[in-house]
Amino acid sequence: MVQQVQPIFILPEGAQRTIGRDAQRTNIMAAKLVAETVRTTLGHKGMDKMIVDSLGDITVTNDGVTILEEMNIEHPSAKMIVEVAKTQEEEVGDGTTTAVVLAGELLKNAEELLDQDVHPAVIARGYRIAESKAQGILNQMAEKITSNNEEALVQIAQTAMTGKGAEYAKETLATLAVKAVKMVAEDNSYVDRDNIKIEKRTGGSVEDSELIKGIVIDKERLSSNMPRVIKNARIALIDREIEIKKTEIDANIEIKAPEQIQAFLDQEENMLKAMVEQITSTGANAVLCQKGVDDIAIHFLAKKGVYAVRRVTESDMKKIAKATGAKIVTNLKDLSKEDLGAAGTVEGRKVGDEEFTYIMDCKNPKAVTLLIRGGTEHVTSEIERAMTDAVGDVAAALKTGMVVAGAGAPEIELALELKKFADSLSGREQLAVQAFANSMEIIPKTLVENAGLDPIDTMTMLRAAHSKKQKWAGIDVFTGKVMDAWKRGVIEPLKIKTQAVASAAEVAVMVLRIDDVIASSGSKEDKMPRMPQGAGMGDMGY
Ligand code: ADP
Ligand code: MG
Q1: Which region holds residue 480: left if phi is over 0, alpha if psi is between -120 and 50, else beta?
Q2: Is the separation of the CB atoms in 376 and 202 below 8 Å?
Q3: Cα 412 to Cα 436: distance, rounded to the nearest angstrom
């Protein structure tokens, strides 16, 4: 009898598997496509992207991480590159395009080594060695900065806003960003970016943007019988409802006669009145409640001349606490005078159709609001992103106290120094370190290309300047000539560069080490990021 051989399936039905060079090639291609997509937005003269989502909403932006998030990329290794942008955004708040473009170039150059039969593990090792050397070079070339260096801080904010829609009001906005950061900085160095609220209002011009010493929330006062403005506000922050919980009542009350209903309602009213009195007896004249406030309580609050708002978000409550020095209280019985915060003014203001509550003129606020104005929604949104970058960069500069000039200068310096370092190595890792060094040049090269200039001449001039020890030689994007980026005030926090290099290298190594992609059926493995026709791979670099 012939024994039947059962085929063995270790993967579920419909699973797709790509192995070895094929897996590497597809992964690298996906990563390069992502990099190529954002590459044209890099720098001063970078172009914008218009992204239309499935609902038809439009985003016009130059911001790397925004583009990648809005694109809804599905390919798994392309997603890994998007993660690089997100990490960069979280860690610094700027430099997202730089990080992604670097990652793409590292993988592109790795692919050439793979074609020459260099083992991916060797490339990965070489990249790690080069990355750690790069960190050393960057730290060595960086300059020190303190919070007293106002001019440099404004230059950092301006550099961050470069190429974004904020260009024409750059000076006003940069000054606001620096003021905001300095106001909330602890010990003149540590800045929690959450303490700077960036709010946008359509209407007016960008120059009308302002720094509010306090917090603006999109909630209106609960009754028109309440005062619209409170001066010398004493603010109670309450994170429980000023209502009687219905469930408590359900359990306890049984009404048998009509007059009991009235008694019950009176009882409820008295309880609410007592709650309001508990609050006002502390001297509070403004109440910000995180939960609901009963209509009867609103009535009593209004009668006492209190400005009250309900359903304030938890994050706003925390910011208001920081701005006014108030303590958030849960149990009304515990509320005391000491828990109240102070603000020069609490005011309800109508902007457009909506009413907002301004808690402002706080003394020494540790949380502030940047109020962005602009003619249209698209303008304010792009300025909001530019301001986020500016705030992030100034904060990052203060935090580490180290900055570099930009305009491609650090990347050319890295390329040059890493090539020297590669010469000191032997074996195949040398090739990988060289590839890493060459990859750094993609940043200045892209800045030149995006300015519509010829990269070959400019790159040659840049390399020459750096080999003559001009470490801040960068690109003048208007003339294509070499300039001293430091003297021209193109300044960025060191952290942008160190983080970009670190996460680009990390993801490149991670992608390189994958030689087997197993996708169960129904996963999106086979979907590549969609690209406009003609924007193929051929023009990545030259
Ligand atoms: P990212 O998302 O990486 O921050 P950007 O579009 O903000 O991308 O571009 C940042 C790059 O532009 C940096 O390399 C920076 O040095 C460069 N850059 C900014 N301002 C200037 C300028 N005035 N001249 C030349 N390069 C500039
Ligand atoms: Mg930037």
Answers
A1: left
A2: yes
A3: 12
N-to-C CA span, the chain: 66
Is 389 among the residues known to form the active site? yes
Pocket test for ligand 1, best of 440, 490, 494 (most atoms within 8 A of CB): 490
Radius of gyration of the chain (CA): 29
Q: Which of 59, 97, 324, 369 is catalytic?
A: 97
Listed by start position, the domains of the chain span 16-142+405-521, 215-248+256-364
Of 96, 162, 388, 498, which is the active-site residue? 96
Q: What is the pTM of this model?
A: 0.77
Angle at 308 between CA 200 and CA 214, to 5 degrees: 40
Asked whether the beta carbons of 346 and 230 are under 8 A apart, the reply is yes
β 368-374/196-202 pair status? parallel
- The verdict on whether 192 is a catalytic residue reads no
CA distance 154 to 484: 18
Question: Environment class of residue 373 by beta-carbon count within 10 Å: exposed (0-12), middle (13-18) or buried (19+)?
Answer: buried
Q: Is 458 a catalytic residue?
A: no
pLDDT at res. 156: 93
Instruction: Give residue 515 CA to ligand 2 midpoint distance, Å.
Output: 34
- Extract the tokens encoding 183: 């106001």
| β-bridge mates for residue 17, sequence order | 518
Tell me whether domains 16-142+405-521 and 215-248+256-364 share a fold.
no
User: Is 140 within 8 Å of 412 (Cβ atoms)?
Assistant: no
- CATH code for the part of the protein at 16-142+405-521: 1.10.560.10
- For residue range 127-148, list pLDDT tens digits in order: 999 999 999 999 999 999 988 8
For 493, half-sphere exposure in the C-beta direction (CA atoms, 13 angstrom radius) is 29
Return the minimum-mean-pLDDT range out of 199-213, 297-311, 440-454, 516-530.
Answer: 516-530
- Sole residue written with tokens 């990563």: 31
3-state helix, strand, coil split of the chain in percent (to 5) is 50, 15, 35
97 is catalytic: yes
The neighbourhood of ligand 2, an ion, using CB within 5 A, equals: 94
Distance 160 CA to ligand 1 centre (A): 7
Helix or strand (DSSP H, E) at 137: helix 120-141
Give me the residue label for tokens 């290099």: 501
pLDDT band at 542 (very low <50, low <70, confident <90, very high): very low
**Domain 215-248+256-364 top-level CATH class:** alpha beta
